[in-house]
Amino acid sequence: MKTKLIAIAASATLLLSGCGLVGGGTDSVGEKDGDITKLTVGATPVPQGDILRYVDDNLAEDAGRDIEITEYTDYTLPNKALSDGDIDANYFQHKPYLDSEVEGQGYELTAFDPINLEPFALFSKNIKDVKDLPKGAKIGINNDPANQGRALKMLEEAKVITLKDGVDAVDAKLSDVEGNPKKVKFVEADAAQLARTLQDVDASVINGNNALEAGLNPAKDGIVLEKAEDNPYGNFLATRTENKDDENIKKLDELLHSPEVKKFIEKKWSDGSVLPSF
Length: 278
Hints:
This protein is an alpha/beta fold. The chain is 28% helix and 25% strand.
């Protein structure tokens, strides 16, 4: 079964048509065609798009489902599209990010259990060891609150900075940096832009999926790699809260947590740049 793709660039206006999506009620989500129900899922291209394509090509038809993937490179779009009813579910984010979106935008969205983790990494064009960061080094960092704290925590563990006592990494921001022995300067940017501007800074903390899309391997190319143990940043399937008990959505989540998907992740990203969370 061939996956249908609708690619949306970071700067594109959100224009989705022909989805035929209806929310609310058990077994009401999606577009039914005979014995097959089509579900439209928003995702970042890598690795979530790859994982969804694997499910669509290998597992969905036998389960009576067809997955149409809408790809996004702008993190601000998938939750809005889901809340507006333009897609049935999305798969791109971790819980701290969803929580910040729910609080800031008032979305009524529900998360399922984590599927995969993409470790953050610190990349550099010229530096091979984090200890070699020069005084006053410029470090690129994402500008969204939910991911900025994650990046700062990784840099603290690498002894680049220290955060104020009592600051939760999930909520940490640049103003919470207390110790900065090398007086590094942070350059904020959208997550999708960090890999593209790597040549303009000494190093940059890049999200795992953005790194992979740019041809960077966090496990091999990163000079610092985020720890996977007890990591709260696993990515999951999310849907509108009114549809959290819908059988079509629950079936999709079941497929995404199948042994086949776990093996696919472990084989395709055997270097540890993407890890199963189940």
